[in-house]
Amino acid sequence: MRGFRVAVVGHLVIDEVVTPSGTYTSIGGVPTYAGLSIAALGHEPVAVTVVGSDGVWALEALSGLGVRTEGAVVEGDATTRFRIVYTGDSREMWLAARAPDVPAKLLGKGFDAVYFGPVAGEVGPELLEGAKAFKWSALDPQGLMRRFGGGGKLVSVEPVDLDQIRGIRVLRLAMEEARAFGYQGPTEAAVGLSRSTGSIVAVSVGREGVCVSDGELLVRGKAEVRPVDSTGAGDVFGGAFLVGLMETGDVLEATALGLSASAERVVRLGPGRLDGHAIRRRASEVRWALEVRRA
To answer: In this structure, what are the phi and psi dihedrals at residue 82, rounded to the nearest 5 degrees?
Structure first.
């Protein structure tokens, strides 16, 4: 099988992460975490991103994880930075710095798919509209929905106009974003958003796993692991989920692959290369434990 070339669009981030297991500073954002799972599964992620002059080392680190960086540009002084603090099952975030928006011109030709994962509003309508020309496209809308207050603290998540999303093949979001659209549970959110947007929708529910719907089927599942650090787990799921759909066209296979990849991610502190063979082995087990019913 020919490897897919996937544009991963959004800010490369420098994260300071505080967890009960320890504190670390590392690269993050969708180019890192979705890129990790796409690369582990034998495909070619290309970061389409903007960093400041203080983030050139971050591009080098990203390249060291197997993510190509020829789609990145250096502009301005500051790279996007977050401080993320985990306490039990809760998380607080502060935006400490922000790089310029990702220019639409960076999303050129030569890609089989595009994965959007903005973190702080850096992906504009022109880029999203361009995604609709791809057979395979995915969006995590969290960075379009976040609102930051004093000191850069994340204070709320607000809904976006669904017209911006219609035409995107895959929508992946956390329950926090689903509630902003008025849904109280993951099942209702996955089915409702799929039917209103025409997308395949995956709603992540932390340790409870994920609910996925294409408007006709509802798939629920989780991978049993003891998490150490969940930073980026949603992006890892999303990258593997998109790859699974591109490889097989099967929502169940894609869900199992996404869950398996996220399980591989959360058992370690910080980003690191993922074992693609281990992900695929686990996915074959997760697949048969999925709950499937008509939506």
So the answer is: -125, 150
